[in-house]
Every structure is written in C-alpha cells, then in structure tokens.
Design goal:
It is a single chain. The chain is of the alpha+beta class. The protein has one helix spanning 58-80; strands at residues 29-33, 37-43, 51-52, 55-56, 87-97, 106-117, 120-129, 132-143. It has a single domain (11-143), classed as Hotdog Thioesterase (Thiol Ester Dehydrase, Chain A), CATH 3.10.129.10. The protein contains 1 helix and 8 strands.
C-alpha cells in the first residue's frame, strides 16, 4: 500500500475517533490520514468476537473497512475540535473476500475517498495482510448531521 508505518493514534485512544465500543472495535491504530486516504491496522486476537476456528470472519473485515472510514472522519473532527459524527453503511458494492486472516496476524486497511454525493461519502476499501489482499469493496457511508 506504500504508506509509512507510523502511528497517528494508538490503540489506547482509537475509540476517541469511532462510535463503536468493545467488543465491536475492529481497528487498533490509525497509521495515516490525508485528503483522500486513510490507513489503519488491526491485530487479530483470539478473543475477538468475530474469530472462528482461528480466523477473523468476513463480517469483521467489512466492519474493519467501515471503521477505517469512521476513523478518518473522527480524526478530522478531532483536528477541528468538533464532535465525532455517527455514520451508517448505506451500501456496499463489488465486495470481494479473498482470504480470512489468522489469529495474531496484522490486517492493514486502506480506504480512498472517491466522491461525496447527496450527503454520502463513497469510498473504496482494501484490507491486506503480509502483502496479500484479504478483502476489497466500494462502500457508501451516510453521516448523521
């Protein structure tokens, strides 16, 4: 994905950026954020509620992409001193789940903002582990005003 491995927001503060709370938090760190891209990481733990038979489920990968988009909005809100808005998945297109990550692996997720239309943000998201693509999709996210 070509983004440097640095941490903007560490695991202990990630819930400041997203509306989800444990056990539904599916990102650990915010690694990168600019005008169009956001990158997060998630270490797959055995205790994760979406781990079955040693692997993270498809649902968790979708939620991971959505929470990466939420972290983007939350980070922008933090920078401007405004409240973090709540968002909802309005639609998912072209979802591909290619592989499920194993416990103890680190998932790296990158989203790219494609457009803003009628109060929705359209993003593409891609999750990978050790250079292999795990999941990708286009997602439409509606923000509460």
């Amino acid at each position: 994905m070509g983004i440097p491995d640095k941490v903007l927001i560490e695991k202990s503060r990630i819930i400041e950026l997203i509306p989800q709370r444990n056990p539904m938090v599916m990102i650990d760190e915010l690694l990168f954020n600019d005008e169009t891209k956001t990158v997060t990481s998630l270490k797959v733990e055995e205790a994760n509620i979406f781990v079955k038979e040693g692997r993270l489920s498809e649902y968790a990968l979708i939620e991971n992409i959505a929470q990466t988009a939420a972290a983007r909005i939350g980070y922008k809100a933090m920078e401007t001193g405004t409240a973090v808005p709540v968002g909802f998945i309005a639609g998912i297109k072209n979802l591909k789940i290619l592989e499920l990550p194993e416990v103890l692996s680190v998932v790296r997720t990158e989203i790219t903002v494609i457009d803003h239309v009628l109060g929705m943000t359209i993003i593409t998201g891609e999750s990978s582990c050790d250079g292999k693509i795990l999941a990708s999709c286009e997602m439409r996210i509606f923000l509460e005003q």
